[in-house]
Amino acid sequence: MPKCNFYSLLEARVAAHASGVFIELETGEIYTAEWLDHLCGRYANALRLLGYAAGDRVAVQVEKSAHAFAIYLACLRAGLCYMPINIAYRSVELAYLLTDAQPALLLRELNAEALPDEAVPRTTKLLSFGIEGEGTFASLAEGLDTSFQTVEVAEAAPAALLYTSGTTGRPKGALISHGALSYTAQTLSKLWGFSSLDVLLHTLPIFHSHGLFISFNVALASGARLFLQSKFDAARVLAAIARSTVFMGVPTYYHRLIASPSLEPHVCRNMRLFISGSAPLSVSMHRDFEARTGHRILERYGLTEAMILCSNPLNGQRRAGSVGLPLPRVDLRIAGEQGEALCSGRIGMIEARGPALFSSYLNEQAPGEFTADGFFRTGDTGRLDEDGYLWITGRAKDLIISGGYNVYPAEIEAVIDEMPSVKEAAVVGAPHADFGECVVAFVIPADTRLPPSPDDVIQRVKQHLANYKVPKQVIVMDDFPRNAMGKVLKKELRIALADRSE
Description:
alpha/beta, Rossmann fold, GMP Synthetase, Chain A, domain 3, 3 domains, nine-stranded mixed β-sheet, four-stranded parallel β-sheet, 13 helices, 28% helix, 24% strand
């Protein structure tokens, strides 16, 4: 079996240009590839000193920083399994993940809230880790050798344990292999035209695959510079765009950029590419952003268990509302209720297989997630058009069945999003005495002083869609509940709706 430690990509970069700048902070501090390699060596030696062996899991709940990237790469270099944790998680959420994963080590921020004893397994060692690498782990690593022989692992060896967002239930731990990380970084680097001339403006969190296994890894694999901001702030992003060539964001980021009067074509004069993922981007946002900047956003599609499956082309037609074409070596199909393959244009379950697919869920035997021929059932519904572009219609669990008809929320949301008075729409199903379920639309107004009336929204949908797709109720909100990547938590909307009914 071939050996493939993902860390070899950094070793290749150091060999090619050790003194080249890899990471630049907002403060102006710069870090070279060689600096990162040496720090990874010290950290890897510290992990070995603690007695950890290949396959052991290291849970990390720390703020985004250059040192945080070093601990990620050091874990992979030492053959350990890296487990990022959302920095917003509190003790109850953390206790569930730690109990499920049983990591050998937990690294947490210096100022993190104290955890109750029962939240941390007895076999898990707890050490602190600050944004400058300070803390009890740093004390252990101080003075250790910067050289470290990278552990040889199989392509299928686990590199990371990433928990699903849990939007439809308890989070599940997906094991991601070294081979999957390498394939994704190198394939996307090529597809999106990355080179050492690029500067990637990085504002995403790094406890999620988008910010770590895609953005950071692609920059690492391509030789690009990473312009690191601690978090997304529209004003700071607009100031930094002039010095950048690529930006990766989620729809929420683009909504906030559009809201700024400073977003103009000259601000984006040096930009080569804007990419969006992690949640659907509305057609109206595509259109408005292009009108304001002259740039057409490249939308792509992925999930925790597969990172990225599809992307609109760099050179070619980027279809607003579509997530693009399957990546090289990715097989994609649409399946019906009985598992049969559906022809183009028909809506069904999106199934996929390919080199970036996760290996398995931790502690779960889930044969139902895979077909007999190895396709993963994504849980998303969609259709393929005649040219092979994929169009997402929603989550299978978000499907509304009203009067025996299948209703796909994304179709209704797209119609409502076209209203000038609406900033964003989210559609869910609610119990109904006659129809079993009915459609309920939540909307965020474009201008809070002039919100759309429920009648306006209902009439808009009536004009464009069949009657069974028309909302029975329209609720105006200031904002939607979202996860860390800006994805609307429809489960929370359904709960809020039930509370209103009561």
